[in-house]
Amino acid sequence: MQWTSAPNIGEAPLPQRARGYWKTWVSALLEGLEKLLEAERAQLPPWFVVGFGAGIAAWFALDTPTEWKAFLCIAAAICVIGIGLGRSRTGSALAWFSLAAIGGCALVWVRSDWVAQPRLSRPVVTDVSGMVDTVDHLAARGTVRIIMKPSDPQLPPHVRVTIDEEKFPPGIAPRSIVSVRARLAPPPSMALPGTYDFARDAWFNGIGAVGKAMGPVAVLKPAAPTGLEGVRERL
Fold first, then answer.
1. Helix, strand, coil percentages, rounded to 5, for the chain
2. Among residues 23, 125, 153, 204, which one has the fewest Cβ atoms lying within 10 Å of its Cβ?
3. Is 90 exceeded by the pLDDT of residue 99?
4. Average pLDDT of 5-9?
5. pTM above 0.70?
């Protein structure tokens, strides 16, 4: 009697029945998805907004330009796949959703670069003088926040200074010129993961430093509030 080992079939192609099983399974999956999307065709357009928001959220969730570029490339590849599926609901939905995600990520990226302003690198105590942009009274805290454009080129183009209400002199309004000694610092980032990120909002608002007045505020050129700001002040 002659003994022989079992043949090695590791490199052999799948039988016709196995190949047919996977082809049938994928076809059935696409057909079921097509029927679902056809039944919900009236609900598909709002998903364009969801895709747009997903692109914006991806930009904030990712940290570096390399990751943003990778996201755009992946979304573009998915869009091409959707177009390759032909004139089907599945292909159209996939293409439009990924295209919306590309638009959202690209838009917030361009917006971030557009509003980019120099920021203070370390805390400093200095005299700040310049034109006032906005005045915000915080009655509950007893303080007033002003955003001003410093005349010193070594400071960021816009800084926010907090002044105690009792030290706030009359004559300060948008377009007035003031001088104050303040401690300025870079806009603080979130204290805990997932909490409010003031540094991000300050970036998009063009604020490069925040601080508090350490002495009296001198009004070099007074101004009176006008328009809605004047109505608000009188109220």
1. 45, 20, 35
2. 153
3. yes
4. 53
5. no
Which residue in 63, 185, 184 sits closest to 112, CA to CA?
63
Q: What is the mean pLDDT of the chain?
A: 82
- Please give the Cα distance from 59 to 200 (Å, whole number): 12
User: Is 213 or 2 the better-scoring residue by pLDDT?
Assistant: 213
pLDDT score at 85:
76
Residues 30 and 90 sit within 8 Å (Cβ to Cβ)? yes
Domains identified in the chain and CATH numbers: 21-114 (no CATH), 124-234 (2.40.50.140)
Q: Which residues of 99-113 are buried (b: 16+ CB within 10 A; e: fewer)?
A: bbbbbbbbebbeeee
Query: Residue 112 is encoded by which pair of tokens?
Result: 């971030």
Indicate the DSSP class of residue 42.
G
- pLDDT score, position 53: 94
Element (H, E) at 182: strand 177-185
